[in-house]
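Here's what a typical entry looks like (Antizyme inhibitor 1):
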Amino acid sequence: MKGFLEDANYSIGLLDEGATLADVIDNCIYEHTHTGKKAFYVGDLGKLVRNNVQWQNVMAPIKPFYPVKCNSTPGVLEILGTLGVGFACSSKAEMALVQDLGISPENIIYTNPCKQASQIKYAAKAGINIMTCDNDIELKKISRNHPNAKLLLHIATEDITAGEEMNMKFGTTLKNCRHLMECAKELGVQIVGVKFHVSGSCKDLQTYIHALSDARCVFDMAEEFGFKMNMLDIGGGFTGSELQLEEVNHVIRPLLDVYFPKESGINVIAEPGCYYVSSAFTLAVNVIAKKTVEYDKFLPSGGKVEQTRNDDEPVFTYYINDGVYGSFASKLSEKLNTIPEVHKKYKEDEPLFASSLWGPSCDELDQIVENCLLPELSVGDWLIFDNMGSGTLGEQSTFNDYQRPLIYYMMSFSDWDEMQDAGIASDTLMKNFFFVPSCIQLSPEERFSTAA
Ligand SMILES: *Cc1c(COP(=O)(O)O)cnc(C)c1O
């Protein structure tokens, strides 16, 4: 791989045998307690390596193309590039980012359903040819700006559980595929395959069965038109649980063998996003303010305290130094799938109180957790959120004085070995590793990076 981000200010702590993620978090909290108590992430890049091993074990030969928008921090992109994962980009900025990594254009697909003409031109120039398309206006735009484009027709799935998610909004019908093929023939645009996406919240695996047979119909239709079809993209929506991956595989494998057998030369690819990164990042936030519900206010004269409190009303309201205008942006559109852990030690029999958690903006949308049970916290205490790896990490925030949390990357020695077995890491990546003996501390002043 080509030298990547020569001046990138990031480093990866290589953990000595015996040191754990929890030690790294403890240590960072210890340091931050003396340096302003800013929120920070710890990213275990070894998790990406392990998730990739699991993908290869269960899903091979389906090739993963990681959607850059899920987490575009340099450590993540560079490790995935080293592991030989491809990239699904939704913008020029994302394409440029992975190109800078030295990723070759065959390993990049352009998947935005609503592409800007100038960005299609950019893809054409960069030799990024594979892109998705679900309507004729998009098709015409592509034909004008990218004569060598190779299209994947994005078909809709019947994922009713996903509500208004992208499968409802994006993707076309089988009937319209015929129309798109007629247009493509007329315009001389190549169609090379089909893409669909089943969201991670869809529990009904039948959706895959329908989507795969629909995809086969589109392949047959394409044959009539004389298109040479060679790619099937089964999208993302893998949660990261091995069980879910195996369940999906169990359902799709027999159908792939029948409809898209190896001998047919059709490459099956997928776009696992959350799968790779969600569980790899842990966010630590600090309690910056606290409010207590005043019981007296609700007390009718002579009433009993217990009866007057509204049960839905949390007893404590805590404000923390990251919120929906930062790391919890996904909370605006979906449920948070993580429960905070209290970092300080507390006794098992300590009383728990109904508590709500809010971001620092004082905005009414900035609620992170509506109601959870926590021991009583003080201003300055830390809360830990797991599974925070997919979302806004890597994006530039447009909100006024929001500062991205620092990111500490780490990896264990055994994951490091595994990574070296899997791919050839560039010299620049290798230079980013530094050794962390189990008893020695990571020093944030020297070893931090902010998200790119
Ligand atoms: C966001 C996105 C995905 C990722 O979905 P996950 O549920 O995170 O796997 C896949 N494909 C495209 C084009 C996306 O934009």
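The pocket of pyridoxal-5'-phosphate is lined by residues 67, 69-70, 88, 90, 111, 197, 200, 235-238, 271-275, 390 (CB under 6 Å).

More examples are in the samples folder.
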